[in-house]
Amino acid sequence: MEVGRAGGLRVAAFFSQMAYVCSIHYQNMLEREREFKSSEAVCLSCLPVMDSGNLPSYSYFGDIAEEVAVFAGNQASNMHKADWCLFNTFDALEHEGNSSRTYMIN
């Protein structure tokens, strides 16, 4: 992004995860110190009310869970700096993938 801006270009950020996943990571990045209780309803901008079980969990990474959470959240760190944000929906990819597997099996 910085290289494009330095060259006077407008820039886009491409996210390989779906928009709602990026939104969760972005909100988590803004409120990193906040801990959600398991019984607490979670309200994030532009998303339906969720419980804490709907949020990303990195506990299965053991001792490096915090580092993995920071890495995942940093993907969304330049979201507010881009002129455009592009998100992968996976719709076409999943349809094409399923069709080709069916063809290969038959």
From TrEMBL:
Gene3D superfamilies: Glycogen Phosphorylase B. This is Uncharacterized protein. It comes from Cuscuta europaea (European dodder).
